[in-house]
Amino acid sequence: MVEKTINEEEFGYILKKKKFLCEKNPHVALCVSGGPDSLALLFLMNQWLEKNKGCSTVIHFNHNLRKESKQEEQFVRNLCKKLGVALKVLSWNGSKPKTSLMKKSRDERYKQIIKYCADKEIITIMTAHHLNDCLETYLMRRLRGYSTLGLNSIPMVNTQEKLQIFRPFIDIKKERLINTCKINKLNWINDSSNLDNKYERVRIRNHINGLSKEEYKNLLAEYKKSLVVNFKIEEKLDNYLIKNLSFFNYGKFSLSKKSFLNTCENMQVEILKKILVTCSGNIYPPKTLSLQNLIKKIKFNQKFKFSINWCIVNVNNTSIEFYREYEKIKRFSSVKKYIKKSSSLLWDNRFFIKTLKNDLSCEIMTEKKWLRIKKRYKNFCENRNVYFEIIKTLPLIKFKNIDVIPFVLNHDELLRNSIMVNFCPKIPLTKKNF
After folding, report:
1. Does this model's pTM top 0.70?
2. What is the pLDDT of residues 259-289, one digit of tens each?
3. For the domain bounded by 237-324, which CATH number is listed?
4. Residue 121 contacts by C-beta under 8 Å, 6 or more apart in sequence?
5. Phi-psi region of 25 (alpha: psi -120 to 50; beta: other; left: phi over 0)
6. CATH numeric code, 8-210
7. I need a labelling partner for 198 at 20 to 30 A (CA). Which of 15, 20, 76, 279 fits?
8. Residues in Cβ contact with 341 at an 8 Å cutoff, skipping those fewer than 6 apart
């Protein structure tokens, strides 16, 4: 059976059904590689934007990994020129890692795209991920031994650094996107890495393509069932966190020990995963076995500290505290970072820093720097509840010969100088945020 195409009317219905939110006269960034999925997105979204008095900027990311990369970039340049659409080409230059190449290239792509959109005050990024991508991700995670929420596939929408990343085709088969391009006479290019069996995703894709109709139907039913189950768990988890978790804008989380121990162990595992991912700025949670060991310690020990997932878990008689592990910051954020005025930076994958009027620098705190700085602050005594172990996980911001530690000491200086610092991890704590 030939899969039907997607027309303008259906695409508008998809956006409405998926509750796509945008500003008046929307400006949307469209991630376009040159393949059929992203070309279908470009074609359909530009039709919608024309009707809704908006505009788009195409973002093409050149990974510089294959000899065809430059040709693909030129293809997208020519296409955007023909369509009269704005284009921004971003590139991954320099030496490339020898391991986990697909993951690291994806991380670099999102990092640059998100930064560009934040700097240009574009609040929506659209990608052309589709149902086939979701099935592949689900199966990869299942084969790796993930369970419950760990099996969650690609989300339709998620928020990073005040940007929404929206994927309108998440329930649509790839064949429909290809046929949409064909009927609208849109030529595309093929990425040769999609045929390279050394990549896990390609092997999984070939496996799925080799399934019988019945086997594919069963896989799809299993995937859809997992979405329903996970939605219920997510809802229960969100409600628990909103009622029981305290968040401090300098990156600390606090949970009642009693409320935690009163939940079942499966839910305890999911609670810890959520908090630790958000607290650390990581994308991936720790292994279930590590979490089960931590839960046993919480049950049978009154007071202790535990290092896990780049975080410190500080347990006492009544509460469980979570904050970033300083040694990991020292390892990954030791280089001083500079931010020019009217630009921004994500520091330590947790704090979004934007400056409008001044150039500034961010560096890691040390005991020596703290001893030099703390004498200057009259309000230090008022902040005794924020101990140095947490203070040193925050960026030391310098501008106009002023030293500031956001949220804790002299934070008003940032506000007076139009410098914004927000806790903004890659993965929000709940779908309702916090």
Report:
1. yes
2. 999 999 989 999 999 999 999 988 778 888 9
3. 3.30.465.60
4. none
5. left
6. 3.40.50.620
7. 76
8. 355, 356, 357, 358, 359
